[in-house]
Design a protein that fits this description.
The structure is a single chain. The chain is an alpha+beta fold and 110 residues long. It has one helix and seven strands; from the N terminus they run βββββββα. Strands 4-5-6-7 form a four-stranded antiparallel sheet, with no helix packed on it. It starts with a strand and ends with a helix.
Length: 110
């Protein structure tokens, strides 16, 4: 790819970026149809699926199926992402504590 195209992970999501010199066009880099990694078509300026030929415009709108879904990326802030991770960890910890309490109660009954 040219220097205008790059792939990276942002806030836990794989994205593809096309930089036209004025704006970055950021999309999810996986086709929603069957999960293939998209290629950038530098002639037509589209994101193309090599597996089943779905096509998406620069900003992720589906312009040709079989995919029925767009690949539009909505950027989360660091704070929102960190809050999601914190909530997942807290839920996991509560689940572990709850399981331990259940196991302790079972042991006491034996």
């Amino acid at each position: 790819y040219s220097s205008h195209v790059r792939f990276e992970n942002r806030f836990g999501k794989n994205v593809a970026i096309y930089d036209d010199g004025k704006n970055e066009h950021i999309v999810l880099s996986t086709c929603p149809h069957m999960g293939c990694t998209l290629n950038f078509n530098e002639v037509e300026l589209t994101w193309d699926c090599p597996c089943h030929a779905s096509r998406f415009d620069l900003d992720g709108k589906c312009i040709k199926g079989p995919s029925c879904y767009d690949i539009i990326y909505e950027e989360e802030t660091h704070k929102e992402y960190n809050e999601k991770i914190k909530n997942k960890i807290e839920k996991s910890m509560k689940d572990l504590v709850s399981k331990k309490e259940i196991n302790m109660n079972l042991i006491e009954k034996i």
